[in-house]
């Protein structure tokens, strides 16, 4: 793919090497891979290969958060540069009418479970032609309480489809979901790590009394969709949580 060459990808990551041939062969795949492992390109390869422009919504990518939906949509847009597809990201917190208009001509839909169900209920999203279903970060979707929503959405898709499940961990709930909705899936596992080359790491040496004010400053001025704060004691955890409300 020329778009991959343009992006300077020289060597496939472990998850890409293991999953892409299976995905291109039409196999259902359970991929245990962390953020930063190159999983988006892995499932993008199958989407770009199979999806045809102007033939209805053929691919649905479910994500747990708005931020991930936007990231996946951006990556898919980049990778499909030489095969232009109509990609539509749908999520809550924004006006629904522009999404309704965009969905009329969509080839690929990326979205969060709540807003996807909203569109299904309004009959503004038809999944009857979906041939590829991607569950991205499935463990997070289940942890966030979306299991029933995910099941409802999956049931709206045709039985004859390819299902790709990507998850940092394969919990018992994720495994049950896979057994119920996937056909003879092949499981592939990549070493669970985040590529440090994709991270910016910063260390601040500050006195204890200044830590919270610095945290607030960073939260207010740094662009971040999702933030995880670790504390060294339960007391500090309660203090930070209560004062950030």
What is the overall pLDDT average? 89
CA-atom Rg in angstroms: 19 Å
**Structure classification:** alpha/beta
Q: Which architecture of the largest domain would the CATH scheme give at its second level?
A: 3-Layer(aba) Sandwich
Specify the oligomeric state: single chain
Number of helices: 11
Topology as a string of helices (H) and strands (E): HHEHEHEHEHEHHEHEHH
Strand segment count: 7
Domain count, please report it. 2
* Form type: globular
CATH class of the largest domain: Alpha Beta
Helix content bin: 40-55%
The CATH fourth-level homologous superfamily of the largest domain: P-loop containing nucleotide triphosphate hydrolases
Strand content: 5-15%
Note the main sheet: 7 strands, parallel
Strand order of the largest sheet: 3-4-2-5-6-1-7
Low-confidence stretches: none
Q: End-to-end distance, in Å?
A: 47 Å
CATH topology of the largest domain: Rossmann fold
Characterise the protein shown here.
With 245 residues, the chain is of the alpha/beta class. It has two domains: 2-194, 3-Layer(aba) Sandwich (Rossmann fold), CATH 3.40.50.300; 202-244, no CATH class. Helix content is 45%, strand content 13%. The chain has eleven helices and seven strands. The protein has a seven-stranded parallel β-sheet, sandwiched between helices. Strand 3 (87-90), helix 5 (97-103) and strand 4 (108-111) form a beta-alpha-beta unit. Helix 2 (14-24) runs parallel beside helix 3 (39-50), helix 3 crosses helix 4 and helix 6 (113-122) packs across helix 8 (147-156). The longest helix is centred in the N-terminal third of the chain and has 14 residues, at 66-79. The radius of gyration is 19 Å and the shape is globular. The mean pLDDT is 89.
């Amino acid at each position: 793919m020329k778009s991959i060459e343009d992006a300077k990808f020289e060597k496939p990551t472990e998850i890409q090497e293991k999953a892409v041939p299976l995905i291109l062969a039409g196999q259902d795949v359970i991929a245990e891979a962390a953020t930063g492992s190159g999983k988006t390109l892995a499932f993008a390869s199958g989407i770009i290969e199979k999806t045809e422009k102007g033939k209805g919504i053929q691919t649905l990518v479910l994500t747990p958060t708005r931020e991930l939906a936007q990231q996946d949509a951006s990556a898919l847009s980049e990778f499909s540069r030489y095969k232009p597809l109509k990609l539509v990201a749908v999520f809550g917190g924004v006006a629904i009418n522009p999404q309704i208009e965009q969905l009329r001509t969509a080839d690929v839909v990326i979205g969060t479970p709540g807003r996807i169900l909203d569109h299904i209920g309004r009959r503004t999203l038809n999944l009857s032609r979906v041939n590829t279903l991607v569950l991205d970060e499935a463990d997070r979707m289940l942890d966030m309480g979306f299991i029933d929503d995910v099941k409802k959405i999956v049931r709206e898709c045709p039985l004859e489809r390819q299902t790709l499940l990507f998850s940092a961990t394969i919990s018992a709930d994720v495994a049950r979901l896979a057994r119920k909705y996937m056909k003879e899936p092949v499981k592939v596992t990549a070493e669970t790590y985040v590529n440090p080359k994709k991270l910016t790491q910063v260390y601040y040496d500050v006195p204890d009394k200044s830590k919270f004010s610095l945290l607030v400053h960073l939260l207010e001025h740094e662009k971040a969709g999702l933030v995880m704060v670790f504390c060294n004691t339960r007391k500090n955890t309660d203090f930070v949580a209560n004062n950030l409300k």
